[in-house]
């Protein structure tokens, strides 16, 4: 469909958290929400890196209410500290945009001892979401937007096993990324199902593929690679449009879209078959929640 930033409604009085908002599509998302008078919290690891971003947003929108709160998705203790700090402020929460992620990195473990792509892209965002869910429910209507990828099709159904996830000998950067993105889709579906089972209809949980986006990741390569990357890949502005649509547009409510998957630009789509496997979603939920509860103890 046709959707651009002018389609974002006024967001006066709304509060949003955007993870990974210091660069790329996260930055664009935070900027455009702020332009519509949303109070935007940039949940990022580095204050030094994020402060210039805040200045850039405020230059584009002088009245923007944007701020930094520290969040390191490589650490569930950081997720706990972030959510505790947010809860203590007594703010509502209308939009949670789980945008941050890492991709195709060499094997490494998070501070909690799990493979970094699965830990950052899925486990940390699941923990963040569940710890903020009571506020999202009391602030409803509200939305949770999980940024996945078409790469979820690279995963295999037997991948959700700690011995496989954390095995450096069989580690594949591509498969690990795909598994984390499949986890985003399945978490979206399972959370939506559980909310509905509790009779909660006005917390909208959806996932999306933002497209293949040029965000400077190719800057370290030679001129020819950068030239062709810019020809083939979308800009960060275009890449952010689908998640801004899912986060703000009235279509989501009008069509009662829950647990759905969207592709550029702002099109409802179908996931790979694995992304529709309810048994797999339930198994992933149990495996993930067990680890989270073991690591974070209130």
What's this entry about, in short?
This protein has helices at residues 24-35, 47-60, 76-89, 116-138, 162-165, 173-197, 223-232, 236-248, 251-254, 278-295; strands at 15-19, 39-44, 65-70, 95-98, 142-147, 203-208, 261-263, 267-269.
How is this structure best described in words?
Strand 2 (39-44), helix 2 and strand 3 form a beta-alpha-beta unit. Helix 1 crosses helix 2. Mean pLDDT is 94; it is low at 216-229. The protein is 46% helix and 13% strand. With 298 residues, the chain is an alpha/beta fold. The chain has helices spanning 24-35, 47-60, 76-89, 116-138, 162-165, 173-197, 223-232, 236-248, 251-254, 278-295, and strands at residues 15-19, 39-44, 65-70, 95-98, 142-147, 203-208, 261-263, 267-269. It is built from 10 helices and 8 strands. It has one domain (11-289): Rossmann fold, CATH 3.40.50.720. An 8-stranded mixed β-sheet has the order 3-2-1-4-5-6-7-8, with helices on both faces. It holds the Pfam family adh_short. Belongs to the short-chain dehydrogenases/reductases (SDR) family. Keywords: Oxidoreductase. GO terms for molecular function: oxidoreductase activity.
**Cα shape:** globular
Beta-strand level of the residues, as a percent range? 5-15%
Secondary-structure element order, N to C: EHEHEHEHEHHEHHHEEH
Which homologous superfamily in CATH is the superfamily? NAD(P)-binding Rossmann-like Domain
**Number of E strands:** 8
CATH architecture, please?
3-Layer(aba) Sandwich
CATH class: Alpha Beta
Low-confidence stretches: 216-229
Number of helices: 10
**Fraction of residues in H or I helices:** 40-55%
Radius of gyration: 18 Å
Structurally, the number of domains stands at 1
Structural class of the helices, strands and pairings?
Answer: alpha/beta
Main sheet: strand order: 3-2-1-4-5-6-7-8
Task: Determine the CATH topology.
Answer: Rossmann fold
How far from one another are the termini? Answer: 44 Å
The largest sheet, given as strand count, sense and whether it forms a barrel, is: 8 strands, mixed
Mean pLDDT: 94
């Amino acid at each position: 469909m046709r959707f651009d930033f002018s389609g974002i409604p006024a967001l006066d009085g709304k509060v949003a958290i955007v993870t990974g908002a210091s660069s790329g599509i996260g930055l664009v998302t935070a900027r455009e929400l702020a332009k519509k008078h949303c109070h935007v919290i940039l949940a990022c690891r580095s204050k030094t890196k994020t402060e210039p971003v805040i200045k850039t947003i405020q230059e584009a929108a002088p009245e923007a209410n944007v701020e930094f709160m520290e969040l390191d998705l490589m650490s569930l203790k950081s997720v706990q500290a972030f959510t505790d700090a947010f809860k203590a402020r007594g703010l509502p929460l209308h939009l949670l945009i789980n945008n941050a992620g890492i991709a195709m990195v060499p094997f490494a473990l998070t501070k909690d001892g799990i493979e970094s792509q699965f830990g950052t892209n899925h486990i940390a965002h699941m923990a963040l979401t569940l710890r903020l869910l009571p506020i999202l429910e009391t602030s409803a209507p509200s939305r949770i937007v999980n940024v996945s990828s078409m790469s979820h099709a690279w995963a295999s159904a037997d991948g959700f096993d700690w011995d496989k996830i954390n095995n450096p000998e069989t580690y594949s950067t591509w498969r690990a990324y795909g598994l984390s993105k499949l986890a985003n889709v399945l978490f979206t579906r399972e959370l939506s199902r559980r909310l509905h089972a509790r009779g909660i209809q006005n917390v909208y949980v959806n996932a999306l593929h933002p497209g293949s986006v040029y965000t400077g990741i190719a800057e370290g390569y030679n001129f020819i690679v950068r030239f062709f990357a810019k020809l083939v890949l979308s800009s960060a502005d275009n890449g952010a449009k689908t998640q801004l649509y899912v986060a703000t547009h009235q279509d989501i409510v009008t069509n009662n879209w829950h647990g759905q998957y969207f592709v550029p630009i702002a099109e409802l789509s179908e996931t790979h078959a694995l992304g529709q496997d309810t048994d797999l979603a339930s198994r992933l939920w149990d495996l993930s929640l067990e680890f989270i509860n073991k690591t974070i103890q209130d």
